[in-house]
Amino acid sequence: MNEVVRLERHDVVAIVTVDSPPVNALSAAVRGGIKDCVKRAIADPEVKAIVLTCAGRTFIAGADITEFGKPPVPPSLHDVLAEIESSSKPVIAAIHGTALGGGLEVALACHYRVATKEARLGLPEVKLGILPGAGGTQRLPRAVGPELAVKMIVGGDPISASDALKNGLIEEIVEGPAAGGEAFARKVLAEKRPLRKLRDDDSKLAAAKADRSIFTNAVAALTKKARGLEAPFAAADAVGAAIDLPFDEGIKKERETFLKLVSSDQSKAQRYAFFAEREAAKIAGVPDGTKPRTVERVAIIGAGTMGGGIAMSFANAGIPVTLIETGEEQLKRGLGVMQKNYEATAARGGIPADAPAKRMGLINGVVGLEHVRDADLIIEAVFETMAIKKEVFTALDKYAKAGAVLASNTSYLNIDEIAKETTRPQDVLGMHFFSPANVMKLCEIVRAAKTAPDALTTAVAVARKIAKVPAVVGVCDGFVGNRMLAQRGKQAEKLLFEGALPQQVDAVVTKFGMPMGPFAMGDLAGLDIGWRSRKDRGIKSEIADALCEAGRFGQKTGKGYYKYEAGSRAPLPDPEVEKLIDETLQRLGRKRRVVSDEEILERMMYPMINEGARILEEKVAARPGDIDVIWLYGYGWPVYRGGPMFYADRVGLKHVADRLAFYAKETDDPSLEPAPLLKRLAAEGKTFASLAQTAKAA
To answer: What digits encode the pLDDT tens for the residues 429-443?
Structure first.
């Protein structure tokens, strides 16, 4: 008997139960077990119907992706599905939890499907840079029609049991999977229902066969945001094959496309990102079994852009939050902005019409820091200056209850310094959200020198609860993301002094896959912020200063590195900027040269990788994957390139180190010299991925 799949007989109904915790993934043992049990049930003359169900918290939640890239172990999933589909006895999939990827493909090969009301069904393979490889692109369009199928396969998001019922993906919503599946099997037998094999049923394809625009319009809507990605387009083609080709030919095309995608660089990067995100939630250097503290009440200090966005993140997760300001006017303004944001999202159909009222109802706006008294977690999101932060934490020390976690949403400042303002440094840490906080998924969690392990696990648990991706980092200026970004900013600025133009630099960066280039980003943030900061520190940056002196502060003034037409955010190259750069260079006695796109790309990316190597060496980040997660979720690094450290490994560390050494010499910039860790790995022919996973974060 296979230990992960068991067969029981309840008179005429055979129950095949997969029991392979935690998520019943389709490992070789599970595949073999299902095939064997189904075969035995078919061969048993007493059995008239078969129910396939799962123990534990979920139905089969997908393929075992740890097997990807390894030699295949029989039976293949195709063999298992063929066994199920060709059964002369009805096979019913009884689903609870999630039926995802290969799990849903197993259910689609069954003759009937039932699910519990909380179940979710989907084919999310596109998120790993692949497509369903076991008939999903051919059977799902036959089950629900090509329009919904393309939405589920190209979009990758699961649907609820009620949507599955409405669209014919399941026959019934049941109470418990095994009992519900068995009751449904008896009904099928009593009513002598014919076996419905999806492979033979083209009825739901008829409309799209007659009018292909039904399908092409659905594809166009879904691939709009898929810039640079291969898998969504390949998946759409495979669904198209269900409309155009007989089933077996469609399956053949799906298989060919799957094999091509699974060996592609994009899919390797996307699968790496999937595992890196899971690894990032594991905190290095925290004793096993450290439990998070209970968080029932949350307070946020500051109702500006960041504070408001953080409050919305909690409200979106159904968690009540107290939002604290210093005055009624600021509070009213902050709450008004949040209300407007919610209403705009509801108007676009992004959230239900009643959601704005419900979510705003969870945000209690008050004036005065004394209102933090009941909070288990307090997040400070006030102006980014050390003096103001210290003032707030001195007050928090007075008002916050014992054991409350005190978090600062600083993007640069030293958390150890902030913690010194309190008598409880063990409760203090950073929770650096990214703007807009209600949209961006990253939360850099900053571990200070005295942060208690349970305070750290609390911050990670809370971040996950509000659908953020947490990454734990150590204390340093700018932590991980902004510290690396500063290196790119420095090179972007230098390139202008050497002859590149803002639009050339930005075009190279966006072609690489970033959402924005450094100069368009500067215009969006406002160039006056950096200008003020430089003046405070007595630093000059001739080109940027000249732009600000000319009143060009970016999008808000309609002019910055680019010009902006009224009401538009689209950056347009401006001859005036080119003239201003020329004049500045003449004044400084510098000559412009032709800068190649290749040089721009290397000088935008390699200095960040170099800084990443320093960050790993200093133990500010525990793993290269944590750095990559920060860039993927906080800065829009293209997922199909896996993150800066993964990208460096793909390019080759020797090449990166050699080019950095070359630019250090060429541009007389010692900061570009390869970091010791990068140098060592390059010399040994190693990768960042080869670094010991046990490295402890600072």
So the answer is: 999 999 889 999 999
